[in-house]
Specification:
Chain lengths: 333, 261
Amino acid sequence: MDKSQYKNVFVFCEQREGKLQNVALELLGKAHDLAKDLDQQVYAMLLGHNVKNLAQELIAHGADKVLVCDDEALATYTTEPYTQAIYQIICDEKPSIVLIGATTIGRDLGPRLSARVTTGLTADCTKLEIAEDKELWSTRPAFGGNLMATIVCPDHRPQMSTVRPGVMKAMEADANRKGEIIDYTINFDREKFRVKVLETVKSTDNMVDISEAKVLVSGGRGVGTKEGFEMLGELASLLKGEVSASRACVDAGIIGHERQVGQTGKTVRPDLYLACGISGAIQHLAGMEESELIIAINKDKFAPIMSVADLGIVGDAKKIIPILTEKLKQIVK
Amino acid sequence: MKIVVCIKQVPDTTEVKLDPKTGTLIRDGIPSIINPDDKGGLEYALQLKEQYGAEVTVITMGPPQAEAVLREAFAMGADRAILLTSRKFAGADTLATSNALAGALRVLDYDLILAGRQAIDGDTAQVGPQIAEHLGIAQVSYLEDLEFDGKKTFRIKKQLEDGYQIVEVESPCLLTCLASAVKPRYMSVKGIVEAWDKEVEIWTEEKIEVSEEKLGLKGSPTKVKKAGAKEMKAAGQVHDGLSPEEAADLIIAKLKEKYII
C-alpha cells in the first residue's frame, strides 16, 4: 500500500436529533493537534438529515472542511447507511486517520467500517499522538485499566481509533475560523438497509447506575441531611453527574442503597469523585480509589480519604459546596 | 432455527496483575470463565430454543484449554460446540479474529448469530460487528431485550446512553448482547454429566477456507507497539486554612486542568 496517498485527519461528527454530541467537538480538538503535527487538514464528516446548519459550529471547533451527507436514511443512526456513507468517503478522499466517538453509535459503526475497509481500529483510546515517523500512536487501557497498551496500524490506511466521550478536550469555539462546507452525495445501495428503528425512547425513570456516571458528587456524615444531599444534587447536575453516598448516609435512610459506594455498595471509577464530608473508611475507599480524579473536602485533615485524594481541602463541605455551585453556574452552561 | 453463539474464554477478573520484574501479565492461577456478555447471548439462545425449538451451536477461538467454556455451554444446554484452534490463529487482533470466526460461520448454517457486546479482558466491542460485516448480514448491538415472532423477525430493545431504541431486523442477523440484560441459567446436573460425553469439534484453518494472510498475526492490521503499567498517581496535595471561597476556586482550577469542565 502506498501510504503517501492517504492524507488528512477525518472526524465522524456524531449528531442525534440534530444536536451535535460533545464527543464530536472533543475529537475535532484532538484532530486539530494531530493534523498540525502532520501538516495536514481536519475534515469533519457530518451525516444526517437537515443538519447542514451544524457545519459552522464544526468549523468554529477546528474543522477545515465539513463534508455534509444529507439523506433521509441518515436521519436516525442505523449501521448500514452510515457505514456506506463513510466507506464511500474513505474510498474517495483517502484519509490518513479517522476518529470516531466511542458511544453506543460509534462502537457499532467503527468495527463494521474497519472490516469493510480492511484496516485496524483501536478502541476507547485515552491518548492519541503522532510519532516521529508520522504514524499514529493510540494508547488505550486494557485488562480493566491495569495495563496501558500503545497500538499502531503500520501497513493499512486509514488508521482508525475510537475515543470515549470526555477524554479529549474541545477547542474554544472561534466564530471567525474559516472553513469550507461541501455537500457530499452518497450513492446508497438501499436494498442493504435491513434494520428498522421503530422508536427511540429517552429514559425518564429514576433508576440510576452510579457505576456508569462520569462524575460522582458523594456525601458522607459531614453533609448528612436531606438538605445537604439536595445541595450535592444541584452540584452533581451542573457537572452532569450523579449523587452517591457513603454507608453512613444510606444506613441513616437519607439516600437509597443503589447510590452507596463501597464494599457493600458499588465499585465506581468515574472521571471525578468529589467526596464531601466522607472520612473514608477502608470499605469506602475500596469502592472508589480507582477514580480518575479524587477531590476530598473534609474537616479532618487526617481523614483517610485525604490519602487517596488528588486534591484535599480541609474545610466544611456545607460551606464550600454552595459557593462552588454558584461559581460553576457562571462557567458551565 | 439454527443459532450460533460466539463465546470467549476470559480471565475471571479484571484485576489481572503485572509481574513487577518482567512487566508482563500474570495469568497463572486466575480462573477462566465464559465472558459475561457472551453468556448473556447464550442464555437468549437457550430461551429461543425452549420457546421455538432451535439447534444451539457455540463456537470459540482460542488455545486448546478454551474447551472448558464449551463444556460449560454444553452443561447449560448447548447442542453443539466448536473450538477453533491453531497456531495460525495466534496473535490475532479483532479483525483477524473476526476473519477466522466468520470463516467458520460460513461453513456452519445459521439463522441467528449471538455474540457478547464486548469481552472483559479487551473491552473493544469489535468482533461481533466485524463478523457481521464479513458475512454481509445485518447487525444490532447493545441488545437489552429480544422478541421473536416465531418466523423471521426479531424485535430488539437496544441500549443507548440516555434511553433505548426498539428496532426490527430479519433473520439472518447478528446481535450483540449485554450481560446485564438477562440472568444466565446455572448448569444443570444432567447437563454437567452429559457435557463430558458430548464431542467438542476441533477446527483448524483447514476447515474454514480463509486465506492465511487474513489470520493470526499476519492478518492483524493493528500491532502492539508497547505495553506497560498505568502511570501511578502522584501523591495528592492537601490544603488547610483556605476560606470557602478560595477552596471553591482551587477546586474549579483542578476541574479545568482535568477537563471535567
